[in-house]
Design a protein that fits this description.
Helix content: 40-55%
CATH class of the largest domain: Alpha Beta
Structural class: alpha/beta
Largest sheet: 8 strands, parallel
Strand order of the largest sheet: 7-6-5-15-14-11-9-8
Number of helices: 20
CATH superfamily of the largest domain: Ribulose bisphosphate carboxylase, large subunit, C-terminal domain
CATH topology of the largest domain: TIM Barrel
Number of strands: 15
Distance between the termini: 34 Å
Radius of gyration: 23 Å
Shape: globular
Strand content: 15-25%
Length: 463
Amino acid sequence: MYGGYSYIEQDYKPDKHDFVTLLWLKGDASLEALAEMVASESSVGTWTSLKTMNQFVWDKLRARVFDLKRVKTSVETAGFVKIAYPLEHFDHDNLPQLLASIRGNIYGIKEIKELEIIDWSIPEKYQRQFKGPLLGLEGARKYLGTSRNRRPHVGTIVKPKVGLSPAEFAEVAFQAWSNGLDLVKDDENLVDQDFCRWEERVSRTVDAAEKTGEKKIYLPNITDFIPRMLERVDYLEEIGWRMCMLDVYILGVPATKYLVDYLHERKFLVHAHRAGYGAETRGRQGVSFDFWMKLMRLIGVDQIHTGTGVGKMEGSPFLVRKVGKLATQSEIKGFEPLFLDFKWARHIKPLMPVASGGLNPGDVEAVCEVYGNTDVTIQSGGGIHGHPDGTAGGARAMRNAAERRVNRKVKVGPELETAINKWGLTDAGKIHQGFRDFEKNRKSTQQRIYKRGYKEIEKISGE
């Protein structure tokens, strides 16, 4: 009971039009009380009973707590909770209103000490209001000509992150492309600083891409206040370069949705950088990246950073493969309490996952094993430009590793051998065995999570 009403209905069966959230909750009240606080504050209630409450509101719009699994802890109560929300509770085509409900006031409730939205499901009827990716995974492959051989795409982020002049930046990009890389992108914190003005950098770098005589991807960062972003899109359209990058988490959902729609009207490929996501997705207070992955595919970005499983960023191989499946597959079989069953609406295209962060050519095989296939763009910054033979050597090593992943007749070239000698070769077989062991022990793993709580999830996810 919270605010005079009970939101627990454990015999309730969500229907196909319900949203469902899967939560980790811990606090200084009973798990039932914590769950009802969340259900109330995220739907129709408040801290006290209301004279204005009526039968329509209560019957049709309230959230329902339909599953609770308690985990015993020292003094506080904790556990996993599932809450269903009726579709009618939410505005049409309004993601900010949706987020203000299920991801709003609930994080400020003082009795709650830990609250993580582990996963959520989005009904197909709601998904049909959104277009999803315009080009996505197969569009990127068609543009680069990899639809048949299915090799992983390989790219780089120009380093240093900031500081190079437009001419220096374009020369590094040319060296990367002309030695085998598919993609070059700005880093998340490079936009239009005095030492590297945006328009000159873009002009020189696009010229460098065209100078190669091959199809290449260059992703200029346009992140800024919206009026300046629109000016940059218009400039790119004028010069015939229809691709760019957005720092989507920094921009937020409303601005990202607005920009993606604007870009897709102009047939742009949209690359999403997730800079800042860790502020909300790490630890036990916030949301998982699964939550954001579903939002971004719904909004329609074509490529998004999804983790590496082996590089410098957090996230275990298990966690990254799960996110990769959310990006590329049409239906996901759940494994509670780590993630729910989920099905995308038929028109929502797969998008291209991007593995980026602390990678080098010796990681390519392992990254493909993490994702379970080669439908991934593998980016390396330091692992390209820190190669003993410079950017050209790093690019050749990276492309060599990518070609070997789909054709074992391709030999290890001297640049790849040099890279392995410097940074090592990540053991893909060990990652493969890890997934085999997980599948073998699924039931015992699930039991262990329900017994020990979120700390067990942290072990599995590598947080």
